[in-house]
Design a protein that fits this description.
Distance between the termini: 35 Å
Radius of gyration: 19 Å
Strand content: 15-25%
Number of helices: 10
Structural class: alpha/beta
Order of helices and strands: EEEHEHEEEEEHEHHEHEHEHEHH
Shape: globular
């Protein structure tokens, strides 16, 4: 691996080469169809931002049961795969790599946003108390009590992740990111606040980590370890999870086992800028010391703090989310300090259509 950690310089190792060390973080934008099929404007959006080294797509459902939000894309049928191919082709023409984030929303869901046959599933039958779900035409709704997953449900869900990973490669993606953060299904199994099971998938550190590790192992076997990353959010504050007793021990075990799988990267998000407790230093240090793959840090960085993290070898790559929303030419603006950044319009973050999505001005 190169020791040159300058943000705008290339990263090259024996697993992946990137044109720079900037990662566009996954951001839900709700521009797919109501049937969870990627649209033409999504290809435009990602291609506009393909000056980054690596793009990670918005959370993408690996199955109908995982499609809990309105108009998020899926990658579980042939029509979705064909639509994603237009996105990956457009991004590759600009020289970037692109991974799809496989996000099963688990209990963070609403039946009105899902295909008719889908179910709201979770490790335990516990509904989020403080999180609402937006439904087109109805506004914010209470989230219903999820179904506690049976062993068969777990087996099927693992198989769905594996098939979606295969679909991703067929669609031209360079790899997949497993979403083990932000209170979605994988983290719901990891976190004791949401997992009250008494079988082999609940209770002990090993049991609560089992579901995530089985998905990771089987996806690695299906598409190759160099095409698999995972996102984690210790101390995360989204979707009614939060810090939990024993989390240092939990993430130590999880990362030790992920290291054995030789994943390409761990993508670690710090929710401190959202008002959550900071990412614990002990967990960050343990991950850096234990995991030999790439480490992506995310959460509140600017170019200066990102460069500092890279130069101190705290990370190999740094991910940015919000700045990319309104600045398709973000790297150009950063590299030319005289060009101010566009400000995003939050009212248009999740609305359908190109407004507030692909129509932000590009600097000359």
């Amino acid at each position: 691996m190169e020791t040159d950690n300058t943000l705008f310089k290339a990263l090259k190792n024996d697993k992946i080469s990137l044109q720079n060390k900037v990662v566009m973080a996954p951001m839900t934008r709700s521009r797919a169809t109501t049937n969870h099929i990627p649209t033409e404007i999504m290809a435009t959006f990602y291609a506009q931002r393909a000056d980054a080294g690596l793009l990670i797509t918005e959370g993408t459902a690996p199955s109908p049961n995982g499609a809990g939000y309105p108009r998020i894309p899926g990658i579980y049928n042939n029509e979705q795969v064909a639509a994603w191919q237009k996105v990956t082709d457009a991004v590759h023409k600009k020289g970037a790599k692109i991974f799809v984030q496989l996000m099963h929303s688990g209990r963070v869901s609403h039946p009105d946003n899902m295909p008719e046959t889908a179910q709201v599933l979770a490790p335990s039958a516990i509904a989020p108390e403080n999180t609402k779900m937006y439904v087109d035409g109805k506004g914010e709704q209470d989230i219903p009590l999820p179904k506690e997953m049976t062993k068969k449900d777990i087996e099927i869900t693992i198989e769905e992740h594996v098939q979606s990973a295969k679909n991703a490669i067929a669609a031209g993606f360079d790899g997949v990111e497993l979403h083990g953060a932000n209170g979605y299904l994988l983290e719901q199994f990891i976190n004791t606040n949401t997992n009250k099971r008494t079988d082999n998938y609940g209770g002990s550190v090993e049991n609560r980590s089992r579901f995530t590790l089985e998905i990771a192992q089987q996806v690695v076997e299906a598409i190759g370890a160099h095409k698999v990353g995972i996102r984690l959010s210790p101390n995360g504050a989204l979707n009614d999870v939060g810090p939990f007793d024993g989390q240092e021990e939990t993430f130590a075990h999880l990362v030790k086992e992920l290291e054995k799988l030789n994943l390409l990267y761990i993508h670690l998000i710090n929710h401190e800028s959202m008002g959550a407790p900071a990412l614990p230093d002990a967990i960050l240090k343990n991950i850096r010391d234990t995991f030999s793959g790439l480490l992506i840090l995310s959460g509140g960085y600017d170019p200066e703090s990102a460069n500092e993290a890279l130069e101190k070898n705290d990370a190999d790559l740094v991910a940015f989310g919000r700045p990319f929303i309104a600045n398709p030419d973000l790297l150009h603006r950063w590299q030319n300090g005289r060009i101010a950044l566009n400000e995003p319009n939050p009212d248009l973050f999740y609305t359908p259509g190109p407004e507030g999505y692909t129509d932000y001005p590009i600097a000359k």
